[in-house]
């Protein structure tokens, strides 16, 4: 099998910054509560004219530029998102058109906040089998559009953003070494947008009941996240034969600094190996991992041969982990 490697990364964050001080004016909350409970100081919010595809297009263009690859070389566009521009067409098709990926297939992938890891796994399969040579994997969200800005339990947590990765066959020992994907649909009700789909189509009533927003049992999701992270990382490392001490960078999904801290502690990883952006961007769902990866790459922190472990969890519930050698 051909191993998929990362040829380029790119990201985009909207300019508008929403600080905890802004939120204090919107709901009954405090900067102190938000920082101690979640680690979030501020988040980015898309402008009214920006949808998920607009964020994705910019991130994709930057990833292709970083890879030195033209859009016409792209064989497949995969967009992992929980906030597509619309039901259909797929956001990936909107991106495919806008970036000029004329030869590419395109589809969206829904796996909650684990979407980026799922999409990387799926994309790598096209490369491993030889079906595709260039796959664009994007995690992009405008969660601000499905956030109930009157609900302090959720509105302080989320943010908008996009990250993209270009996958190509690896020419050396680098690339995706292993991944593990999991799900437990019985826990789906812990994190959902109840209406707007075929079960409860959009009606005046569903809108009045605010069912088109994120509904979450934060405490249960928190417990679940802390529980699965350690096992998922152990299993994916096991598949590669790497030891925890050989991990150079750990990129957990950025939902809450306490979840990240606890995972790092259980895994015995010092915090200087853990990439964190939740303080500045909040929970950007499928974008959180590629945003952290891009930042570390751009800052020159990641070096050739480094072993990177990513782990995500989210709506579904889903979770998953991946090991990449840079
Ligand atoms: N400001 C002030 N008080 C608040 C706020 C707020 N913004 N939000 C909730 N509270 C109150 C609650 O009402 C509750 O009060 P009560 O005890 O009187 O009812 C109190 O604070 C404590 O609530 P808890 O739920 O116990 O707080 P907790 O320490 O669990 O932190 C949090 C809440 C931050 C939501 C945490 O549970 C969490 O991060 N959970 C995981 C969420 C997550 O990861 N979601 C996404 C996963 S997947 C995806 O990304 C879509």
In total, the number of strands is 13
**Ligand set:** acetyl coenzyme *A
Give the rounded overall mean pLDDT.
97
Q: What is the rounded distance between the termini?
A: 19 Å
Strand order of the largest sheet: 1-7-6-4-5
Count of helical segments? 11
Structural class designation? alpha/beta
Q: Which value, in Å, is the CA radius of gyration?
A: 19 Å
State the share of residues found in helices, binned by percent.
Answer: 25-40%
The largest sheet is: 5 strands, mixed
Order of H and E elements? EEHHEHEHEHEHEEEHEHEHHHEE
As residue ranges, the low-confidence spans are none
The coarse overall form would be globular
Query: What proportion of the residues form beta strands (DSSP E)?
Result: 15-25%
Could you explain how this protein is built, in words?
51% of the residues are buried. The model has no long low-confidence stretch (mean pLDDT 97). α3 crosses α4 and α8 runs parallel beside α9. The protein is globular and about 55 Å long. It is 34% helix and 24% strand. The chain is α/β, with parallel strands linked by helices and 326 residues long. β12 and β13 form a beta hairpin. A five-stranded mixed sheet has the order 1-7-6-4-5, sandwiched between helices. A four-stranded mixed sheet has the order 8-13-12-11, sandwiched between helices. A two-stranded antiparallel ribbon has the order 2-3. Acetyl coenzyme *A (ACO) binds next to α2, α6 and α8. One of its GO terms (biological process) is secondary metabolite biosynthetic process. This is Beta-ketoacyl-[acyl-carrier-protein] synthase III. Pathway: Lipid metabolism; fatty acid biosynthesis. It comes from Pelotomaculum thermopropionicum (strain DSM 13744 / JCM 10971 / SI). One of its GO terms (molecular function) is 3-oxoacyl-[acyl-carrier-protein] synthase activity.
């Amino acid at each position: 099998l051909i191993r998929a490697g990362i040829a380029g990364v790119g990201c985009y964050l909207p300019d508008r910054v929403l600080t905890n001080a802004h939120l204090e004016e919107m709901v009954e909350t405090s900067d102190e509560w938000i920082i101690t409970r979640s680690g979030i100081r501020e988040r980015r919010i898309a402008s009214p004219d920006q949808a998920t595809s607009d964020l994705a297009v910019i991130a994709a263009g930057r990833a292709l530029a970083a890879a030195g690859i033209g859009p016409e070389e792209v064989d497949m566009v995969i967009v992992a998102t929980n906030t597509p521009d619309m039901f259909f067409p797929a956001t990936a098709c909107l991106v495919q058109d806008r970036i000029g990926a004329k030869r590419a297939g395109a589809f969206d992938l829904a796996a909650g906040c684990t979407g980026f890891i799922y999409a990387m796994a799926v994309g790598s399969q096209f490369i491993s089998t030889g079906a595709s040579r260039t796959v664009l994997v994007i995690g992009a969200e405008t969660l601000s559009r499905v956030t109930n800005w009157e609900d302090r339990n959720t509105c302080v947590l989320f943010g908008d953003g996009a990250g993209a990765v270009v996958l190509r066959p690896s020419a050396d020992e680098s690339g995706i070494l292993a991944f593990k994907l999991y799900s437990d649909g019985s826990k789906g009700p812990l994190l959902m947008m109840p209406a707007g789909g075929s079960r409860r189509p959009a009606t005046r009533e569903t809108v009045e009941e605010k069912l088109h927003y994120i509904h979450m049992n934060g405490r249960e999701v928190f417990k679940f996240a802390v529980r699965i992270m350690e096992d998922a990382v152990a299993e994916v490392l096991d598949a590669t034969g790497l030891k925890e001490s050989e991990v150079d960078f750990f990129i957990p999904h950025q939902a809450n600094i306490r979840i990240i801290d606890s995972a790092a502690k259980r895994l015995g990883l010092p915090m200087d190996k853990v990439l964190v952006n939740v303080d500045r961007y909040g929970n950007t769902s499928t974008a959180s991992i590629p945003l952290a990866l891009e930042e570390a790459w751009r800052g020159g922190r990641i070096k050739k041969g480094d072993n990177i472990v990513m782990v995500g969890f989210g709506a579904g519930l889903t979770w998953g982990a991946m090991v990449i050698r840079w």
